[in-house]
Amino acid sequence: MLCSLRRWLRGLEPRVRGHMDRPWLLSLQPWLEQRALFRFQRQPLARGVAAGMFCGLIPGPLQLPGTLLACAWLRGNVVAGGMTTFYTNPLTIVPLYALAFYLGALVMPGEQVMPAWGTVAPDGVFSVQALAAWMQALGTPLLVGLPTLGLLLAALGYVAVHILWLAPAVQRGRRWQRCRTAGCTRPPAEH
């Protein structure tokens, strides 16, 4: 499965590069190529996922522009970075921000108490205004915890891409090692 995912990602590269032949993008091509923004190889993909994981915690409309800038700075894959930002959505943002609050409370001195949802939404109904008020009530621990959580998630995403990318090679090496100890002269066939 991982090999087929890797082949699929590598197959995306020519299609993306085909879209780069637009006349208005021709002047940017040397810069884009130098930055590896559309390379579907291990390092650019890992950097793109890390950028997307970090920038996914940025509020709404700034996630993708932030990811584009981070990918350009880190020389990461823009497609992987942009797709990764979708781990934050209306269902996951509240638990992620609560986790960021607790991480910030761990880092900050003194005792930090998370405000209850009922203090910002007395009737308990979810609304964008209630969510904004709750986020504002989270205060400094949230401001400290968001970059902390973003860095943690970015590091986990970076490592996960490397592990997933190298897993088929490790499996092949193990099969070859077992075959050599059993007396084989040729490597075992791929599944």
Automatic annotation (TrEMBL):
InterPro entries: DUF2062. The keyword Transmembrane helix applies. PANTHER family: SLL0298 PROTEIN. The chain crosses the membrane at residues 45-64, 84-104, 116-137, 149-170. It comes from Acidovorax carolinensis. Keywords: Membrane, Transmembrane, Transmembrane helix. The keyword Membrane applies. Residues 28-169 form the DUF2062 domain. It comes from the Bacteria. This is DUF2062 domain-containing protein.
